[in-house]
């Protein structure tokens, strides 16, 4: 805190008094900052950031009343603690008067079920991956997943035994997973 002398006052005694008050306040801040912070932190149930703000507010009020405090230095500590207590009460009343702050969830992390763009991207990825697997595997997947055919129906349509349909379906799904993994990284 620096004091700029008031040149318009034209009085050297006012400058000397304000310089003495500024020096006194520097000493007060150095001596009482930590104790006031602890006092306010206890009053505010551990809210250290708010306590720091209120310590600054207390010292600002002390600065505004520097001449009165300099007149009787023995009353500085009681005055500071009284002002700090009043500032804390005012801050708590102000917080109770307004509605509580609500934190919104991160909407980028909320899963959506109806996201059309995700569906389009997924369809495109599956179509691209289907081009990377063998025609036999692709045909089995087409029958069983696209046309919703049973193993027996797919065997009849494809003209292959049911065991072959089951085997190709198993390996087709594995091949499709592998192809999807390679399309996601590109």
Structural description of this entry:
The chain has 186 residues and is mainly alpha-helical. It has 2 domains: 12-97, Rna Polymerase Sigma Factor, Chain: A; 116-185, Arc Repressor Mutant, subunit A. The chain contains 8 helices and no strands. It has helices at residues 12-43, 48-64, 66-71, 76-97, 116-130, 135-146, 151-158, 162-185. Helix 6 (135-146) crosses helix 8 (162-185). The longest helix has 32 residues, at 12-43. It is rod-shaped. It starts with 11 loop residues before the first helix and ends with a helix. The model is unreliable at 1-10 (pLDDT under 50). One of its GO terms (biological process) is DNA-templated transcription initiation. Keywords: DNA-binding, Sigma factor, Transcription, Transcription regulation. Residues 29-96, 129-176 form the RNA polymerase sigma-70 region domain.
């Amino acid at each position: 805190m620096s004091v700029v002398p008031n040149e318009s006052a034209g009085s050297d005694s006012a400058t000397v008094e304000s310089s003495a008050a500024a020096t006194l306040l520097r000493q007060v801040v150095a001596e009482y900052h930590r104790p006031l912070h602890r006092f306010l932190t206890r009053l505010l149930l551990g809210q250290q950031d708010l306590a720091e703000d209120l310590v600054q507010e207390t010292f600002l009020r002390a600065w505004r009343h520097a001449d009165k405090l300099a007149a009787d230095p023995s009353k500085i500590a009681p005055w500071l603690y009284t002002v700090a207590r009043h500032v804390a009460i005012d801050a708590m009343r102000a917080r109770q008067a307004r509605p509580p702050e609500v934190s919104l969830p991160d909407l980028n992390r909320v899963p959506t079920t109806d996201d059309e763009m995700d569906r389009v991207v997924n369809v495109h990825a599956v179509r691209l991956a289907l081009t990377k697997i063998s025609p036999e595997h692709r045909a089995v997947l087409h029958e069983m997943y696209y046309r919703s055919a049973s193993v027996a129906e797919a065997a009849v349509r494809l003209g292959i035994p049911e065991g072959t349909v089951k085997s190709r379906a198993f390996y087709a799904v594995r091949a499709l997973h592998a192809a999807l993994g390679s399309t996601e990284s590109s």
